[in-house]
């Protein structure tokens, strides 16, 4: 019994850690799907996407019964728009993504994509529709080719290279000792955070999902890496009517968003564009000046 339970516990630990950190959702799903397959409802249909509109309707949720994270949270993300979710640390920004991806289901309320209740559609089709660019991308211990191809396993080598070019990482890969055959990840060649992130963008480009999530890390990036990152993301979004959601800690990365949703105490405190929210003089306004002051005390 001991021998049997050990690997299962081990997987459980990996699962919890990954779930917690949102490190690499793709890896997580494979582990989860292989070990604890979530059953679709017998009559579940594949998600039928049109514009990629997302709607949270009266969603209440807590990881523990005694500590609600969301209380009747409602908001809508219009299809094809860039939306940022901001708010004080711990307000539940990453939890929005976890619920949308169905790591968890709400205690009450519904989440819709293009008017379909996500609990009623086939889980695989739901997850296929959503791409995540995490800030910290752990690479698989494998070669670069496989690490990018993970976005879509049936992609050809040329498609992988094309995705890498679009993500501005092809030339970097070509300079590695073994090119696309270079082993990276744990025990592999060390590559920089910015390069990893560009590989993650390439992976998502290959997957080509209609809904994109960018989960920004809390840790401050240096200005160069941040500019690099924003360039990659803008490349990814250029000329595309893709729904994209930015979970943002640094407000200056969301100034351009079509809409900013400010969460506080389990609900939407305010929403609007950067200019509208600054004018309003509410929570966003004070967060903005607080951050500006923290980053550069001479700026105000
Ligand atoms: P940050 O800005 O610090 O990244 P966030 O707004 O993304 O935070 P979440 O990660 O969504 O916040 O977490 C919301 C709250 O839920 C936090 O108080 C967090 O401690 C708690 N929490 C998150 N995951 C779990 C979990 N698996 N079990 C219990 N509590 C959790």
UniProtKB/TrEMBL annotation:
Q: Origin, by domain of life?
A: Eukaryota
Domain ABC transporter residue range list: 54-290
The protein's location, in the record's own words, is: Mitochondrion inner membrane
Q: How does it assemble?
A: Homodimer.
Q: Family, per the entry?
A: Belongs to the ABC transporter superfamily. ABCB family. Heavy Metal importer (TC 3.A.1.210) subfamily.
Query: Under which name does UniProt file this protein?
Result: Iron-sulfur clusters transporter ATM1, mitochondrial
Native source species: Mycena pura
């Amino acid at each position: 019994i001991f021998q049997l339970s050990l690997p299962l516990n081990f997987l459980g630990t990996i699962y919890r850690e990954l779930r917690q950190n949102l490190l690499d959702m793709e890896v997580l799903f494979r582990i989860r799907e292989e070990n604890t397959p979530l059953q679709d409802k017998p009559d579940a249909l594949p998600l039928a996407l049109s514009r990629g509109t997302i709607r949270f309707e009266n969603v209440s949720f807590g990881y523990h019964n005694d500590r609600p994270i969301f209380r009747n949270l409602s908001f809508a993300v219009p299809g094809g728009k860039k939306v940022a979710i901001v708010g004080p640390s711990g307000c539940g920004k990453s939890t929005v993504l976890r619920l949308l991806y169905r790591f968890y289901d709400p205690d009450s309320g519904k989440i819709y994509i293009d008017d379909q209740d996500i609990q009623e559609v086939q889980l695989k089709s739901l997850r296929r529709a959503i791409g995540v660019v995490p800030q910290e991308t752990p690479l698989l211990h494998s070669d670069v080719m496989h690490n990018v191809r993970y976005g879509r396993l049936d992609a050809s080598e040329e498609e992988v290279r094309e995705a890498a070019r679009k993500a501005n990482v092809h030339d970097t890969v070509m300079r590695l000792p073994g090119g696309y055959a270079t082993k990276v990840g744990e025990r592999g060649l060390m590559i920089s955070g910015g390069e990893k992130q560009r590989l993650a963008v390439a992976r998502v480009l290959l997957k080509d999902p209609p809904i994109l999530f960018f989960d920004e890390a809390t840790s401050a990036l240096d200005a160069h890496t941040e500019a690099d990152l924003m360039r990659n993301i803008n490349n990814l979004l250029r000329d595309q009517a893709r729904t994209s959601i930015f979970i943002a800690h640094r407000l200056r990365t969301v100034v351009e968003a079509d809409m900013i949703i400010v969460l506080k105490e389990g609900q939407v405190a305010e929403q609007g564009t950067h200019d509208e929210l600054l004018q309003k003089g509410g929570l966003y306004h004070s967060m903005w000046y607080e951050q500006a002051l923290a980053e550069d005390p001479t700026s105000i």
